[in-house]
Amino acid sequence: MSGLVEKLTLAEKAALCVGESFWAMRGVERLGVPSIVLTDGPHGVRRQPASDDPGLTGSAPATCFPTGSALAASWDVALVEEVGAALGREARAQGVSVLLGPGANLKRTPVCGRNFEYLSEDPLLSGELAGAWIRGVQAQGVAASLKHYAANNQEHRRYSVDALVDERALRELYLGSWERAVATGRPWTVMTAYNRVNGRYCPEHHELVTEVLREEWGFDGVVMSDWGAVDDRVAALAAGLDLEMPGFGQDSDAALARAVTEGRLAESALNRAAGRLLALIERTAVAREPGHVDDPDAHHALARRAAAAGTVLLKNEGGLLPLAPDADVAVVGAFAAQPRYQGAGSSGVTPHRLDDARTALGDRPYAPGYGRHDEAPDPALLDEARRLAAGRDAVLVFAGLTEAYETEGLDRPHLRLPPAHDALVEAVAEANPNVVVVLANGAPVELPWRDRVPAIVEAYLGGQAGGSAIADVLTGAAEPGGRLAETFPAQWERHPLRALPVGPRVSEYRESVHVGYRLGGVEEAFPFGHGLSYTTWAWSELTVSAASVGDAEDLAVTATLTVTNTGPRAGSDVVQLYVHDSASTPYRPEHELRAFAKVHLEPGASEEVRLRLDRRAFAFWDPGRHAWVVEPGRFELRAGASARDIRARAAVEVTPGPATVAPSARAALPGPVAPFPRGPFAALLDRALPPNATDEPGSFTRNTPLADMRGSPVVRALTAALRRRLADEDGHIEPLFASMLDDAPLRMFPMLTRNALTPGMLDGLLALANGRAVRGLRATVEAALERLGR
Ligand code: BGC
Asked: b or e along 537-564 (b: 16 or more beta carbons within 10 Å of the residue's beta carbon)?
């Protein structure tokens, strides 16, 4: 189909490169090329009833799988691929050709409001699991859209913030996750992020989109924008962005076609983009064949299995879990009856069923303990819970984050639970020593009472079957299969990243490569990789295929150990292989995850786990050479049950070989202590740090966030109009939409108003906001008249 490009007119080619509506990409009717549907999102299919419906609710029923953090905690590549396949089947049964996921952004900080959708703080784990998800989806003929490329690690000011990341951190961590996902998943589309990276907006970032993604990694699919991310359509196309989403009206296509006729854009660039878009339509043809059906029961069962597999047993003193079959157990906490099971924002789906733990646990004494959506403790409910708890064999306390605490569009100000939930745990723990806390949240939380309760289970946001899955785990019908894919810090207030600037204009990644478990100085409540089991495990010594290897491009070492299930129950264990560089010129984290394997074993059974390490497992990115460099010397391979629980070690000596080069002088910058002060960080970035200030009146641009232009009456009026448009009939406004009233820049107004405000009108309004009254009025009126004339 890409051969059809020659038959297209300039206008048709330009039209292909801009969405048809909120949820569709254009085809070419004249040539029988269909328009195709794109839909969110990572843990379920969110098909809105109408293609111009920007709403976050009312999508067609679909299976709500566990969200990214729960799926990742399974560390189970095969399972994630299975979930991907189910998502792909549901997508095509609903007529969807492109499913907008998975999210491969690293969890740089625990407070990112969208961490529930993302997978891990580690690039290897994130990239492997994203790749598996993509393989599953695409095996059904549906395209995945790996998002949001790149360094979209915070929600605060996400539409405009400039992520300042040094080249090493970018390559080793932030791009590392994408590189892996592209290599293992071969996605058919990639979605660029809203933010800037080192001064340039992602859709216009030639280096990221063309040089790295396409030329270095061999990505051969479509690059699309996040919704409303494109500022300069012509610059974005020239940088390698094929598709602008969404699309209303013809302004963007007209701009593209004009740029070609005026010689500002090479027609060959437009041809390439159109060719890729036609190829995407062709690649997804299977998805549009008639007769695809969905299997809700089977998918519900899979969602249940996946939720149990992603459940992490954080603590289990005295073997309190699994519950004895005849134990007298009370259930407290409103989440048991009305679960929190997914995150808020564009990923939210309408589940076709919803299990709750209270029902799934059978007929047990129950008290809500707190108001389902309340912050403040309710003394009467606490008293009732205390009375119910006293004297039982065990008490299950369901706690976690309410919907208001985690959402796309907003970062969390702290990691605490709602006070009502903390109070319930404390109250029940006073009344009964045998407390099991069951947590529902999409990202790390502080657990100030963690030393005062014997058992804690992190159930994450388990999707529509999370209620029955957690009952399976608590009763022992299923094992808690999860291991944390992220660090749980003890306290955000004392976290080294907390003091770093996250706006208004720039977010300084001064910790460089020291993210998550790689960062020192963090008091960890539960480390990356941690998770207990109902059975017991023995690991043998770690052996290596060669104690000494030469540094060559095809360097390979296999590390082997035998895992034995020594306990009475079937279960799974995760072997995590970290590499420690014993002496290196550049600063390096203490050790880094380089391979992992999940094993499922019956009681008494053993399995030999073989983990392969290639050259990259020993390399760092040298910002002076712009290349991966291995420094010959001694490395220690560490097999761990978490980043802090190393069970077996083996040494490997890398000797100089054909690939050896000396690290550049830049590789040694800036010193061992992270996060770095401004000066050393600027040296690392190799440029002066830009000022971190808002735009001044007179210099507002289409990318200035609304909140920074509030002084302007015209902007205040626009914001008020936008609020009315985004609120529902009762005046309620979703948190994601509310965040836009501060963070959205003017460039998003055509999308937010479905082109009621055209880009031309915005230029006029911008001039008004900048105090240029005559010019502004004239431009606004002219653009309005032009629109009326259409
Ligand atoms: C989100 C994307 C999502 C898109 C469409 C954006 O605001 O960042 O993840 O796919 O909207 O809903």
From this structure: bebbebebeeeebbbeeebebebbbebb
